[in-house]
Amino acid sequence: MIQRKLDSNKQVVSVEVTNEKTHDSQKADPLIKTARQKAKEKCKRVEKVIADIRYDTHRTFRHERGIEPCILPRSSARISGNTARDKVIRLISKRAWKEASGYGKRWLVESFFSVFKRWFGEYVSHMKIENIRKEVMFKVWIINLFLGLGG
Questions:
Q1: Lowest mean pLDDT among 37-41, 65-69, 70-74, 91-95
Q2: Which of 44, 51, 98, 138 could form a disulfide with 55 if both were Cys (CB 3.0 to 4.6 A apart)?
């Protein structure tokens, strides 16, 4: 499983390669941390994290101050005292959240995966996780190179 964060040039800035037993939400913190570091190097900041339902955890919503969580809660989500998450749940019930939050920009990430799979297929050729990471990172580097040329 590949998890990533994109910058304003649509390039990948943070990648975590895991096995199928690792839940996406477990990698939210390292992804955000790496994205923040790379943004800081460019005198920028991460303002919002847009993620799908697999990242709906109280921990992710309580991430560092100054980053707006834009994460779709589960359909069974209830008001629970987590201020950021409760705000999203209330807005979803009013059908205003997706427009107000920018959640619709997730299509950028989905487009990246579409390109990735068309170019390289859905499988990797290596068996060891360290070699899989290298293979995936190289493939991501290739896509970033092409995105950088077009920007």
A1: 91-95
A2: 51
Q: How far apart are CA 69 and CA 50, in angstroms?
A: 7
Give pTM, 2 decimals: 0.71
Provide φ and ψ at 25, rounded to 5°.
Answer: -60, -25
Phi first, then psi, for residue 78 (nearest 5°) are -130, 155
H-run or E-run covering 6: strand 2-6
Local structure of 38: helix, strand or coil: helix
The residue with tokens 């990797």 is 124
3-state SS class at 22: coil
CB 100 within 8 A of CB 89: no
Q: Are strands 68-71 and 48-51 parallel, antiparallel or unpaired?
A: parallel
